[in-house]
From TrEMBL:
Keyword terms, alphabetized: Hydrolase
Stored InterPro entries: Cell_wall_metabolism_enzyme (IPR050570), Dup_hybrid_motif (IPR011055), M23ase_b-sheet_dom (IPR016047)
PANTHER family per the UniProt record, alphabetical: MUREIN HYDROLASE ACTIVATOR ENVC, PEPTIDASE-RELATED
A Pfam family recorded for this sequence: Peptidase_M23
Species lineage: Bacteria, Bacillati, Bacillota, Bacilli, Bacillales
The protein, known as: M23 family metallopeptidase
Signal peptide coordinates: none
Key word Repressor present: no
Organism: Paenibacillus haidiansis
Enzyme class, broadest EC rank: hydrolase
Family matches, as Gene3D superfamilies: Glucose Permease (Domain IIA)
Domain M23ase beta-sheet core stretches: 229-323
């Protein structure tokens, strides 16, 4: 089909002439006028509608995608912010931990020093025969102190280093604690023994008066006038004056006889005993534990005595010894 021409025999009709090849007859098609206008119009409208609807659809899809992307990127941002915050928090924790480990080391070092002091005290005042001793704990400052906490951690590597140092320090501390756990109870036991020995040694002057009327050793007996051995010291005083335990210990005997009068024997550590004779009153009983300087009775004039006085005696392994070197 090559060309078409129109003729107008009827005002409401349109005639379409279809010219084909030269040897073919002309074909005539009669079409109503409104139809000629309506068909392309409908086609145009439907195409436009299609385009518009496609446009709407695509814009909706794009909008949806945009919103999705936006929310996703917000989520990512939130996650990244969370991570940053977490890292910062961890870094601060590492720094804080490092500080704590420093402080703990200092404190442990002080405890170790105290233990060493205690050991020195025991060595000085304790049993001189017991020299098994404890090796005092040493602490190498250069090796383990003064690392972390002094720089402001700004780099990941630094934080890692700090964490590693702190971990090392905690390991070191744990080792030190193990040692202390072993040593401190032993040291404390020794300190207690030392304290017991110190407080148990009869060194306290046993009454108020300091007036010595008779020394330890050979003397002329006040009753017979003959040479005799005096097993203790005599301290003149007033009847009723307090009599004190010269050292901590256990009362092993309270008794009375014509020679000793009312008397008390206290047992102390190291095979020592202290004897208190001629008392007017006894304030303790056998089996009692007494502390150094505790009142145990009253000065008197009972037994073989010429006047109110305290006969004080120290017995070591069943033999009386001179009490003066003990008394302060
Ligand atoms: Zn005497």
């Amino acid at each position: 089909m090559k060309t078409a021409s129109l003729s107008l025999p009827n005002p409401h009709k349109m005639t379409l002439l279809v010219l084909r090849d030269a040897n073919q007859p002309v074909k005539q098609v009669s079409v109503s006028k409104p139809l000629v206008i309506a068909v392309p119009l409908v086609a145009l409208l439907s195409i436009s509608g299609l385009i518009i609807s496609l446009q709407i659809q695509s814009s909706q899809t794009i909008g949806k995608l945009e919103r999705q992307l936006e929310s996703q990127s917000l989520r990512f941002e939130a996650i990244v912010t969370d991570k940053d915050a977490a890292i910062e928090r961890l870094q601060n924790e590492v720094i804080a931990l490092s500080g704590q480990s420093e402080e703990m080391m200092d404190r442990m070092e002080r405890v170790t020093e105290l233990e060493t002091e205690l050991q020195k005290f025991i060595d000085k005042y304790g049993d001189p025969e017991d020299k098994s001793g404890l090796t005092s704990l040493s602490w190498d400052e250069g090796e383990t102190l003064g690392i972390g906490g002094e720089f402001i951690a700004v780099h990941e590597n630094e934080i890692e280093q700090l964490a590693a140092d702190t971990r090392d320090k905690f390991t070191e501390m744990s080792k030190l604690l193990d040692e202390m756990e072993q040593h401190v109870p032993v040291t404390l036991k020794k300190a207690k023994q030392t304290q017991y020995t110190i407080s148990g040694t009869p060194t306290e002057w046993p009454t108020l008066s300091k007036r010595l009327t008779s020394n330890f050793g050979y003397r002329t007996d006040p009753f017979t006038g003959r040479a005799s051995f005096h097993a203790g010291i005599d301290i003149a005083g007033k009847t009723g004056d307090p009599v004190y335990a010269a050292g901590a210990g256990k009362v092993i005997l309270t008794d009375k006889d014509s020679s000793h009068g009312n008397y008390i024997i206290v047992e102390h550590p190291g095979g020592l005993q202290s004897w208190y004779l001629h008392l007017s009153k006894i304030s303790v009983s056998a089996g009692d534990t007494v502390t150094k300087g505790e009142r145990i009775g009253s000065l008197g004039n009972t037994g073989r005595s010429t006047g109110p006085h305290l006969h004080f005696e120290i017995v070591k392994q069943d033999k009386p010894i001179d009490p003066m070197p003990y008394l302060q």
